[in-house]
Specification:
Belongs to the inorganic phosphate transporter (PiT) (TC 2.A.20) family. The chain is mainly α. Helix content is about 70%, strand content about 0%.
Length: about 425
């Protein structure tokens, strides 16, 4: 019974990660369409949510990579109750690391990779449990690290070439007319990115839940992913997408490049092509890296456009530390859950780690309410001075003041005779 309760907690935590993945990565598909006015904010996230839901059922190649390509399952004797619990603990601690990093970067409006946060958390927890031998480093390198380095570069080049071609071909068309037609095109290209996002990202949580079911003996390592796992993950990421990660949407739509509709369509088409290709080959690609690279490429490909390199640099730093930062949280949470479990019981250890997750999540959410970003201000002008995701406070007009009176000036009313004199 204890193991079943722990499994349920792990599954709930996995779906919570899937939810954060949805609202954290909505901007990958819809930020440019919202920024150019092709879609209204609420309509954009609703459309993206529906297509994420559909896309989650189209493939399971990435789920297989996550389930069998990060943690070395051969290191666990799943017929042994102790080893089974250790694998479950690895999955649980890894999820906490991913959720905390997702929420922190969302608070700062940094479009970091939810995928790499998950991988980092799992890698850290596996190292804490088994040492460095507990990680399938070959799979991590070939299907995660190398694609992560190549994806933004390739996406940026494709988007830059596409943007340059579009503006060259439509040089004779007036800007207003050009933008009007390309806004219609953006609806289709943004929809394709949302479909691709569901195909790639929802599967990562499917793989994690698959690992949990393997750990508890409910399915074998060679089994297919159950339908209820696919359906619950698809629904969780769709709900998260509909909530709208407005802080990240604002950074991608307004903070990186001031974007017009032709650029937006070029970025979205480039992103969709690369994400769908990687999903077909089972590469657990970061849709954030692809989308960000594409948006930067449109700034390079359009003459006269500019990229805010300070914002891009901050994002690059976040990308570099995502894996190690989430791994550190995963290691810490594994130590907490495992250490408390040795003193009291396994269930108490898991509950303590879960309480830490709830506490950190509540604190981050409370901080976000100090400078909220929502559909009403997501397209507000970017604050060039602070480069912060929070919109600048509206300036209040100065109130007219009465003219100053010199202290020695006689302001007493005068009689008619005094005035005559």
């Amino acid at each position: 019974m204890t193991e079943l309760i722990i499994l349920l907690i792990v599954i709930v935590t996995a779906l919570a990660f899937d939810f954060t993945n949805g609202f954290h990565d909505t901007g990958n598909a819809m930020a440019t369409s919202i920024a150019t006015g092709a879609l209204k904010p609420k309509v954009a996230v609703a459309l993206s949510a529906i297509l994420n839901l559909v896309g989650a059922f189209l493939s399971v190649e990435v789920a297989t990579t996550v389930a069998k390509g990060i943690v070395d399952l051969d290191q666990f004797d799943l017929s042994n109750a102790w080893d089974s619990h250790q694998l479950l603990l690895v999955v649980f601690a890894g999820l906490i690391g991913a959720i905390v990093w997702n929420l922190l970067t969302w608070l700062l409006g940094i479009p970091s990779s939810s995928s790499h946060a998950l991988f980092g958390g799992l890698i850290g927890a596996a190292i804490a449990s088994l040492g460095f031998g507990g990680v399938v480093w070959e799979g991590v390198l070939s299907k995660m690290i190398l694609p992560a380095l190549a994806a933004p570069v390739v996406a940026g080049l494709v988007a830059a070439i596409g943007t340059f071609a579009v503006y060259s071909i439509t040089k004779a068309v007036a800007d207003d007319e050009k933008n009007r037609y390309f806004r219609w095109g953006q609806i289709g290209s943004a929809s394709l990115v949302s479909l691709a996002h569901g195909t790639n990202d929802a599967q990562k949580t499917m793989g994690v839940i698959f690992l949990s079911l393997v750990a508890t003996g409910h399915i074998g390592t060679d089994a297919d992913i159950p339908f209820w796992v696919k359906a619950s993950c698809a629904l969780a990421i769709a709900i998260g997408t509909y909530m709208g990660g407005w802080r990240v949407i604002r950074t991608l739509g307004k903070g990186l490049v001031e974007i017009d509709s032709p650029q937006g369509m070029a970025a979205e088409t480039s992103s969709a092509a690369i994400i769908l290709t990687s999903s077909h080959f089972g590469m657990a690609l970061s849709t954030t890296h692809v989308a960000t690279g594409s948006i930067m490429g449109t700034g390079i490909g359009r003459q006269g456009a500019s990229v805010r390199w300070s914002v891009a640099g901050r994002m690059a730093v976040a990308w570099l530390i995502t894996l190690p930062a989430s791994a550190i949280v995963g290691i810490f949470c594994w130590w907490v859950a495992h250490g408390v479990g040795l003193i009291s019981s396994d269930l108490v250890g898991v509950l303590v780690a879960f309480a830490i997750l709830l506490g950190l999540s509540s604190y981050i959410f409370a901080r976000s309410r100090r400078a909220p970003v929502d559909p009403s201000n997501v397209n507000a002008d970017w604050n060039e001075e602070s480069n912060s995701v929070a919109p600048a406070a509206p300036s209040t007009p100065a109130t007219p003041t009465a003219p100053a009176v010199h202290p020695e000036q006689d302001t007493a009313p005068r009689s008619k005779n005094e005035v005559t004199k």
